[in-house]
Write a structure and sequence with these properties.
With about 200 residues, this protein is mainly alpha-helical. Helices cover about 75% and strands about 0% of the residues.
Length: about 200
């Protein structure tokens, strides 16, 4: 396949062509990975959700009706897989907490190690700040800044109105400014400003 054509590749995928699907996955994989990572917050979960997303896409691609752009349909599936994963992890974490809360005592050294790890670079600071946002705020700002979607497109993916997306986006930016400001001091202020501007 000398020249990439989304429509052509999708047509082949609908016929069950696995080679064409590999091309499709390679084309969207990196951007989709970045989006999923920004929502779920760690690489292991991102790998799992990305795999689940592509499995879902492969099994459901015959249902794609072209009512929306393929990338919108793809990100909507990824978004729903993120939500499923977050809910599943929340239930698992709750069970583990009930099991372990009486057999582990966190020390001050543990907390210091965690703080140092979280501050090892700017990207990790941003990821940490993103994880403090609500799921809707985090998804809105990630679709808009990382995915490059418009307000209307983000609304379709998230299943909410344009006004709701704009509200989530506005609150996300406000909250990120607060979280990032608290995480930077001294000469780091310029870095904080660069990160915030990148999200505007």
């Amino acid at each position: 396949m000398k020249e990439f054509s989304v429509e052509r590749v999708i047509a082949l995928c609908r016929k069950g062509d696995t080679n064409a699907f590999d091309i499709l996955a390679a084309h969207y994989g990196r951007r989709l990975y970045n989006f999923i990572y920004s929502v779920v917050g760690n690489h292991q979960s991102t790998d799992e959700v990305l795999q689940e997303t592509f499995i879902k896409v492969f099994t459901c691609i015959k249902k794609y009706t072209r009512d929306a752009a393929f990338s919108h349909w793809l990100y909507k599936i990824a978004y729903n897989q993120c939500l499923d994963h977050i809910k599943s992890e929340s239930r698992r974490t709750a069970r583990e907490k009930l099991y372990c809360e009486d057999c582990y005592t966190e020390t001050s050294d543990d907390r210091e190690v965690e703080k140092l790890a979280l501050r090892r670079d700017d990207q990790l600071r941003l990821v940490q700040a993103l994880q403090k946002l609500s799921e809707k705020q985090r998804t809105a700002i990630c679709l808009f800044t990382i995915g490059g979607f418009s307000i209307k497109e983000a609304g379709w993916i998230m299943g909410c109105s344009d006004g709701a997306v704009m509200s989530h986006l506005h609150r996300a930016r406000q909250n990120l400014r607060t979280y990032l400001t608290n995480g930077f001091t001294g000469n780091d202020t310029n870095k904080k400003g660069e990160i915030i501007r990148g999200l505007s």
